[in-house]
Amino acid sequence: INDMQNEIKFSKYAETRKYVNEIGIEDFVKLYINHRPVVASSSREFLQAFNVLGKTGSTGQPVLQRSDLMTLLKGQGEHMTEKEVSECLTTLLSLNKEEEEGTEGAHCADSENLLECLIPDELSVKTLTQILGFPFLEEMSTRSSLPE
């Protein structure tokens, strides 16, 4: 973070002898791309986090309750409203209001209880990985380390 702040602060100092205190979206995207982690989260890290957050379900595998996930999303880190969570899930699940009538997505998009419609009461590792679209789903499945 300090490196990013200094990169912004001194980005035009040689030219103007003034510090930069604000940046636009283009500079922000460049900064993000230049400083993002090289390696994404691993399947092991994901499973460890899931085991910490989840509880043992009826199958003996860890599950995360939808209500617990919503509480975490709305109250930890960058707080989100229920509407924001719903919008993100709609995007992640590729649902939109223009979908044909009669499909699950169209039904959910008009539902007052969108989250209940989109997400099961209990999320397994596999279900959450599919919702999030993590690329290591296949890797985890082939190693049989992905509980159903």
Please characterize this protein's 3D structure.
Helix content is 54%, strand content 5%. The chain is elongated, with a radius of gyration of 20 Å. With 148 residues, the chain is mostly helical. A three-stranded antiparallel sheet has the order 1-2-3. The protein has two domains: 1-35, no CATH class; 43-97 and 108-132. It is built from ten helices and three strands; from the N terminus they run H-H-H-H-E-E-H-H-H-H-E-H-H.
Secondary-structure blueprint:
Blueprint: H1 2-9, H2 13-16, H3 25-35, H4 43-53, E1 55-56, E2 62-65, H5 66-75, H6 82-92, H7 104-109, H8 114-118, E3 122-123, H9 125-132, H10 137-142
Antiparallel strand pairs: 1-2, 2-3
Organism: Nothobranchius kuhntae (Beira killifish)
Protein name: WD repeat domain 66
Oligomer: single chain
Order of helices and strands: HHHHEEHHHHEHH
Overall body shape: elongated
Q: What count of domains describes the coordinates?
A: 2
SS elements, strand count: 3
* Cα distance spanning the termini: 38 Å
The order of strands across the largest sheet is 1-2-3
